[in-house]
Amino acid sequence: MTGPPAHPRARWRRLLQLGRPRWRGYVLIWALTLVSSGVALLQPWPVKVLVDHILGSQPPPAWAAGAVAAGPGAAVALVAAATLLLFVLDALVDVALTLSWVRVAQRSVYDLAAATFARLQRRSIAFHAVTPVGDSLSRITGDSWCIYNAATALLFAPLHALLVGGAMVAVLLRMSPTLTAVALAAAPLLAVTSVILGRRAERARGAERQIESRIESHIQQTLTGIRVVQTFAQEDRTHGRFRELAGTAILAHRRSAIVAALSSGSAGILTTLGTGAVLGLGAWEVIGGRLTLGALLVFLAYLATLNAQLVALATAYTTARGLSASIDRALVALDAPEEVPQLTSAPPLAIAPAGGSVVFENVRFGYLPGRPVLDGVSLDIPAGATVAVVGASGAGKTTLALLVPRLLDPWSGRILISGTDTRLVGLASLRRQVAVVLQEPMLLAGTIAANIALGRPDAAREEVARAAGDAGLAALLASLPAGLDTVIGEGGATLSGGEKQRIAIARALLKDAPILILDEPTSALDAATESGILRALDRLRRGRTTLVIAHRLSTIRSADLVAVLHGGAIAELGAHDELLRRDGHYARLWRLHAAPPLLQEATA
Amino acid sequence: MSTPRRPLRGVGGLLGRAARAHSPGLVLLGGVMALEAVLIAATPWPMKLLVDHTIAGAPLPPWAAALAPNQPGAGAPAGQIVWIVAATIVLFVLATTLGLVQTSLSVTLGQRMVYDLAADLFAKLQRLSLGFHARRAVGDSMRRVTTDCACIAAIIRDAALPALAALLTLVVLFAVMWRLNAALTVVAAGAVPLLILVVRRFTPPVLGRGYEYAEAESKIWDITERTLSAAPVIQAFQAEPRADEQVRRAYEGVYASALALTRVQFGLKVSSGLVTAAGAAAVLWIGALEVIAGRLTLGGLLVFLAYLAALYAPLDAMVHSAGAATEAAGGARRVLALLEEPEEVRDLPGARDLVLTAPPEVRFEGLRVGYETGRPVLDGIDLRIPAGSTLGIVGASGAGKSTLLALIPRLLDPWEGRVLIDGTDARSLTLRTLRGRIAVVLQDTILFPASIAENISYGCPDATRARIEQAARDAGAHDFVSALPDGYDSVIGQRGATLSGGERQRIAIARALLMDAPILLLDEPTSALDGATEAALLSALERLRRGRTTIMAAHRLSTIRGADSIIVFDGGRIAEQGTHQSLLGRGGLYAELHRLQCGPAPKERP
User: Fold this and answer.
1) CB-CB: which of A51, A269, A602 is closest to B298?
2) What is the 3-state secondary structure (H, E, C) of B53-110?
3) How far is B554 from chain A (nearest CA, A)?
4) At A469, which helix (H) or strand (E)?
5) Closest CA to A118 of B510, B246, B30
6) Residue B559: which of B364, B370, B390 has the closest Cα?
7) Residues β-bridged to residue A280
8) Which of B127, B222, B397 has its CB closest to that of A445?
9) Inter-chain touch A225–B448, beta carbons under 8 Å
């Protein structure tokens, strides 16, 4: 999934667009940030009043005069109450902020994730064939957070830092300009080191990820090749290799942790130097009577907050650096062009009651540019006829089948149903008329009934049960306590390959479409039960136009025509016996590949 | 989605073993954490000296005076300020350094624990039989090794140790406070039972909601992965809107649980914040009165206030620890489940080494075996393969050919019946010697991403280059290997060294030749190849078989024809047995198959 990199400005504009529906929420966050900055500003003041004006003998400022005049006992109580109030206020604002972040920004993330999912699941099978599911998954669940991170790192962290920092510096300047200058001297240095070490840390994390993926591929190779590893008794060697990789990984993790610790450590030391200087100089000023002790305490408290804000800013900077890659990954998935475009106002596909013919006209298609799988396929399936497609594995049989319901669109050439180019009719109406049974049954999480009713969610219970019965599921359903309502998949019932395949067949039976695509399973069905299914399939085929990728002799024999796919084109076309007599591709293919299922055939 | 009440039940042994194995590191780390607690307690003291003695002019306490006896300027305010600033900086630098040491130690220790556990799991996986691996997806096993193992560090390093350190910090802080002013300490300590109550009240819901949130998140993964993997079916049956709806609902669920989690976190945060704030306010109030009454210095009050702020951090850490431990518990249980998986195939007590001087006789007696209970793949197999002879097996894919082959090197042990090597039950032999005497060539040759020489010498890593090349020559691989830019050192899988199916198979044959094992297993060695390549490979296979007891499964009769005896598998049983000629003569399955593959047999020709 490599799209052209978005133009930087377009990228940010698109991101802004995605956040816009929740702009009110972001404004609320902004307002709350403002309040929280104000509270942070006020927090050290009660202690100042206590130290300077109640315990000390400084004349109180006008706003505190009333409290001080009330006598030491009451004044102290008031100070304590103010402290408590500020604490509570701080906690409440914090709560409101966190809640708003979840309600607004996290919601935006989920919106984006759901939209990305919606787009990805509609992409052509050509895309899914070359893109690992893991990649799509990480775009949906991981990269969607870019919108949250962008809001934090680019909008609110700088805003908060600027607000708090600006206000505090203004207050400090009024109290003592010299001390403020000393306090802030270390700040630029702190920012620079944080940024430099942040980059280092990023590189170190890259090294960590690399070694981790090497370990993963080592495990995967060992487990997929477990037959060879065990037979050749190489467990100790692979284990030794694992230990070796693990040693490297531990080093990488340690390096990364040390860089991160150095980064926070150097920030800590710079902060300490600033604090030390303020403490020393401030104490001198206090002794000289130029500064009150309470003011010094306010200074130190503000300095701690300021430094924390600087570190937060540097973290935001590091986050922002990694952000554009993540945004691009999410946006490429979200805004991918339609590979199976639908014409606006395309008419629905109309199929005569007698059934529709399916015609391939010089079709070329491939999954990778420059490497066609089908290279000029022309095939004519008359209405109501069954054509069996045979060919070596990898010849493109399944690809050919997927073109009919436009799960793929050809590079060139056309597919006509009842004489109409499938690209000129509504996609939904086209797919409604085509039922498919793929070689891999692909069941979804949910009940058996829901899986059977996949194409017709509104089907009546009896219809679902009948389809299940016709597909030979009666025995299985009888053995399950919940019957059709048995949940399958993780944590649910486990089904054998044959049982899954029968559910897929029931699914197609229930859909009852005039065009049928069958990718016959080779080994998922055992010989004893397959004949029932074959009969069900025969029933299913009656009166429908059928394209079947055939492996079984009975299927091939009962087809009206056999098409041999070879070298990306239809090499031979005719009835089974006729093709055998011709002694060409079909006859050779037959000898090499079709034999073992025949053995099943003979014993069935 | 119930909340585990005792999330760590059952994994105690796992944790105990890891803690014992790493006890020196843990003790060291605990020591560093104790030092940190002392430093936290010392941090506000320079400020106290400054306020009480330098600014207020009280004489220095004896311990402070002793620290700087006769130092220049120690008596004058200016000198004291310099010393106090220096002490502040020293304390901070010490704390930073200690933090660095602690991070480095704990990361190293944690990763060691994780990778030790991962290595144990990996070794376990390698010991588990094919039966296990057939049932379990590679991805699932991988996730346990790569992800779930992190639980050990999460529980011991990120939960148990910080909780201990937090407790230690609390004790030290209260001890110091007690010496400063007992009455005020009692006030401050009054907050602690309240805090504990708050933590006890709010921790279970926080953990429960946290667990639900994690579950909801993993549901998203599940649905998304399933839907995207089934994209062709979803699209063909036009189920996209429903999948959208499903995902939207799942996200609603995540959102709802995120909100629920945030709310219970608030409960904890607000009430513990309130208690701390009330404590601080009370200390401030009473402390100020004590200062006015002259029973406490201003600096002492500042120390108290600093400590109150510091108290909050360890308590927070304890709540966090409980959360971390709960999250990790799921991983720990998955790790444990794998570690406790019974090893179906292992050396029995008293197992003997297999000693073979000549190719052995291999016999199967009453075999019954499968991968899932109640679904035997092979059912009642009795068979004798005379020493040095070749047995061919024919049958549909899924008929059990590969399963039969897997029984000989004990990649799988039978449910019932025995495999006998020269009359000895294979289960009474050591795996190492048994497998060391067996060479295999599979249909999908598994080559590892290493050089060709390493791949050929996979079974005997210390083979000389000369022997490797000889094996390659005998397998007909020498010519194309030499033609590669790096020859035998070409790394497989890299650009320019991608091999064709026939070439890969020749490397596998060379690998088997080099092992020079008396038992040879060939599993569909030619079925991935076209006819011409097959013909060329047959002579190499012929050479390989010479002087070995060979079992060869194939569905192409041309590959199998030269075998001394041929069996036909059907429905988990032996349907026919005989030589090529006798089976043709019988006119059964084999003859039918032969007619289909090779045209009518001569004598049937009209």
Assistant:
1) A51
2) HHHCCCCCCHHHHHHCCCCCCCCCHHHHHHHHHHHHHHHHHHHHHHHHHHHHHHHHHH
3) 10
4) helix A461-470
5) B246
6) B390
7) none
8) B222
9) yes
Q: Across residues A66-93, what is the average pLDDT?
A: 85
B365, pLDDT greater than 90: yes
Give Rg (Cα) of chain A.
36
What span, in angstroms and rounded, lies between the C-alpha atoms of B250 and B229?
18
| Contact predicate A397/A565, CB 8 Å | yes
- What does the block give as tokens for A492? 């649910």
Determine the pLDDT at residue B398: 63
Candidate from A54, A140, A229 with C-beta closest to B224: A140
- CA-based diameter of chain A, in Å? 118
Residue in A with minimal Cα distance to B241? A118
Percent of chain B whose predicted confidence (pLDDT) is above 90: 13
Contact flag A239-B237 (C-beta cutoff 8 Å): no
Residues of A in contact with B570 (CB under 8 A): 527, 599, 603
Please list, in sequence order, all residues whose beta carbon lies within 8 angstroms of the beta carbon of residue A451, skipping any fewer than 6 positions away.
A443, A444, A488, A503, A507
Q: What does the DSSP 8-state code read for residue B159? A: I
Q: Are the C-beta atoms of residues A317 and A340 closer than 8 Å to each other?
A: no
What is the helix (H) or strand (E) element at residue B260, kind and residue range? helix B240-293
CA proximity to B133, closest of A439, A521, A220: A220
Above 50 in pLDDT, residue A597? no
Looking at the DSSP assignment, which residues form a beta bridge with residue A97?
A: none
Instruction: Render pLDDT for A532-568 as a digit per residue (tens, 0 to 9).
Output: 666 777 777 777 899 988 766 667 777 889 998 888 8
Q: Does A304 touch chain B (CB under 8 A)?
A: no
Å between B273 CA and nearest CA of chain A: 7
CA distance A91 to chain B (A): 6
A379 closest CA partner among A400, A399, A395, A396 = A400
Which of A82, A98, A99 is closest to A47 using CA atoms?
A82
pLDDT digits (tens, 9 = 90+) for B202-247: 878 877 887 788 778 878 877 888 788 888 888 888 888 888 888 8
Nearest CA in chain B to A107: B255
pLDDT at B7: 54
Q: Does B398 touch chain A (CB under 8 A)?
A: yes
First to last CA, chain A: 46
Candidates A223, A406, A517, A576, partner chain B, best to mutate (most B CBs within 10 A): A223
The token pair at A583 is: 């002694």
Question: Which of B130, B237, B277 is opposite residue A455, by nearest beta carbon?
Answer: B237
Tell me how crowded residue B357 is: count the other CB atoms within 10 A of its CB: 6
CB-CB contact of A287 with B54 (8 Å): yes
* A and B: number of Cβ contacts within 8 A: 388
Closest partner residue to A95 among B51, B243, B266, by Cβ?
B266
Place of tokens 């490599």: A2
pLDDT category of residue A525 using cuts at 50, 70 and 90: low
Beta bridge partners of B568: B394, B576
Q: Whose CA is closest to B106, among B28, B202, B44? A: B28
Distance, in angstroms, between A522 CA and closest chain B CA?
Answer: 8
- At A481, which helix (H) or strand (E)? none
In the predicted model, is pLDDT for residue B351 greater than 80? yes
Is there a contact between A268 and B96 if contact means CB atoms under 8 Å apart? yes
pLDDT at B603: 43
Please name the residues in contact with A170: beta carbons below 8 A apart, sequence gap of 6 or more: none
Distance CA A356, CA A347 (A): 16
Q: Which two tokens stand for residue A205?
A: 């994390």
**A residues 212-271 lying closer than 8 A (beta carbon) to B:** 212, 215-216, 219-235, 237-239, 242-243, 246-247, 249-250, 253-254, 257-258, 260-262, 264-265, 268-269, 271
Whether residue A78 is predicted with pLDDT greater than 70 in this model: the reply is: yes
